[in-house]
Design goal:
globular; mainly beta; 4-stranded antiparallel beta sheet; 5-stranded antiparallel beta sheet; 29 strands
């Protein structure tokens, strides 16, 4: 299915005569725009059948990563550019009609922003080639104020071709409000808090050191907030941590990338907290599946080959499907998910888009 055919079905998908079934949810996809893509695309996705219906699109340069506000009414999307024009965009989102409304943008002052998160008060971007974290206060109408400051990562990892300059890859809010960032080149996870009065980040030292050459990329928490899972791009390993008060204690390190291709990418926990999924690229592209034990540790239970370069993926809120953005195959693959085994099955209901790289579902 291509996007034109998807749009033809959109009228029925949003028709007030037919209405929405309870299983329908809104979905947004971000793309690289170097091959003619508009940027952001909105869909209606049926969580019972795995079928997507296109709604509309918005022209945004390289929205390679974005996040919804907690109420879903705003989207904060990076424009990933390796120069002084890199920005974070604020975009209004109508959850009923699935439409976009551009609000404003602010410079990141750091090249190649590749990650964004928000707690509703501020938004954070991790600027990969800039090696910095940018902080943006969010105004009452959902627009972004200017970036207040930046914090830098360091260089020094042993991988000279990949860690020779500072890189930052992820900045998230921990369940207790601390901010954790991955220092890709310094092989560290850093911890900060936001001082609202003084409008600055305060350093809370290093949350965890990672084995040199690992290249920490994405960090996610278990639903109960007791455990954190780190995907390392260069080592291809997942590190399991227990978490408390801004500190991470390593419990386990387990391989996700058997090809040793230095292409570890995304990581997510199933909604029920019973499984962890990772994506790897460059060789043996696919999804690795882990079962979560009683103490947060992982057991590898399977792997699913996918299309080329699965940079990002998402699990539906009801846990029925896992969607993989295969950048170099210009498609999003839809896999059904067995909730008991965690294993995946291709439904062959691909969504065809140019260079898709980020998939998010409207927050329920």
């Amino acid at each position: 299915m291509n996007f034109k055919s998807i749009l033809l079905g959109a009228a029925l998908a949003v028709s007030p005569v037919f209405g929405f079934a309870d299983s329908n949810i809104k979905m947004v996809v971000g793309t690289y725009t170097d091959a003619g893509s508009q940027g952001l695309y909105s869909f209606s996705f049926d969580q019972s059948t795995g079928k997507a219906s296109g709604i509309t699109s918005l022209k945004v340069d390289n929205p390679s990563y974005f996040t919804f506000s907690k109420d879903g009414r705003n989207i904060y999307a990076v424009s990933e550019k390796n120069n002084a024009t890199a920005v974070l965009n604020s975009i209004g989102y109508d959850p009923v009609n699935g439409t976009f409304a551009f609000k404003n943008s602010q410079l990141t002052h750091g090249g190649d922003p590749c990650y964004v998160s928000t707690d509703g008060k501020i938004a954070l971007t991790a600027n990969y080639s800039g090696g910095t974290i940018s902080v943006f206060p969010i105004l009452k109408n959902g627009t972004l104020d200017k970036s207040l400051l930046q914090l830098g990562s360091v260089k020094g990892g042993p991988n000279r071709s990949r860690q020779n300059t500072p890189h930052a890859h992820c900045a998230i809010f921990a369940p207790d409000g601390y901010i954790l960032t991955t220092d890709f080149s310094g092989d560290r996870i850093l911890c900060f808090s936001y001082n609202k009065r003084d409008k600055k980040l305060e350093d809370h030292d290093i949350a965890a050191h990672v084995k040199p050459g690992s290249g920490p990329r994405h960090l996610v928490f278990s639903p109960n907030g007791r455990y954190a899972y780190l995907m390392n791009e260069l080592s291809g390993k997942v590190i399991v941590y227990s978490y408390s008060d801004g500190k991470l204690k390593e419990l386990q390190s387990i391989a996700a990338d058997n090809a040793n291709a230095h292409g570890g990418a995304d990581i997510h926990v199933s909604p029920d907290g019973m499984f962890v999924y990772t994506s790897t690229r460059l060789k043996g592209d696919g999804i690795t599946i882990f079962r979560v034990g009683n103490k947060g540790t992982l057991t590898r239970v399977g792997a699913q080959l996918t299309g080329k370069h699965p940079r990002n993926f998402a699990i539906t809120p009801n846990g029925n499907f896992l969607l993989v953005a295969c950048r170099d195959d210009n498609s999003i693959q839809v896999y059904s998910r067995d909730k008991d085994t965690g294993l995946l099955k291709n439904t062959h209901q691909d969504i065809v888009l140019s260079h898709p790289v980020c998939v998010k579902f409207y927050p329920e």
